Amino acid sequence: MEESRFAQFTALISSASKSIQRLKIARMEQFHLSAAHTNCLCRLTARADGFTQTELSRAEGIDRAQVCRVLRELRALGYVCTDGQMGYKSRYRLTESGRLIAQQVQTIILDINRFVSSQIPKADIDAFYRTFQTIADNLNEAVRLYGAPPESHTSEECMP
After folding, report:
1. What's the pLDDT tens digit per position in 82-94?
2. To 10 degrees, the CA torsion angle through 73, 79, 85, 91?
3. Distance from the Cα of residue 77 to its chain's centroid
4. Distance CA 123, CA 4 (A)
């Protein structure tokens, strides 16, 4: 039973992730945004004072090099600006153009979200997100506890 749950869980997560990526690609093409652009753009709407590259990297769970590239591209599109500091300490905020694009993107996301969850009672959705957060937290803890590779044995240790 537990093995089948693991297989079902990983298959469902993979399928959902692929569908989300396809939706992002299809719907964000009109804005010339990738999935990473979309995530960072939406995250930037959350804080008027902006994010540093490090803060955005942590919030999005992507490495700083990718965040740096995405922010550079969003800046070239005129969607973000900086506070003038250099490097990872610079704070990135949405420009007026970026806010307008972010509003359009969030409208698309809300429409899709409403469609996806329209047949699910709110209480079930709330329970799902609480449960899924616990699963994600527990998986992160499992990585910490079980993620290290097993101790390697040298050939000398294996010999009688």
Report:
1. 987 766 678 999 9
2. -110
3. 21
4. 26
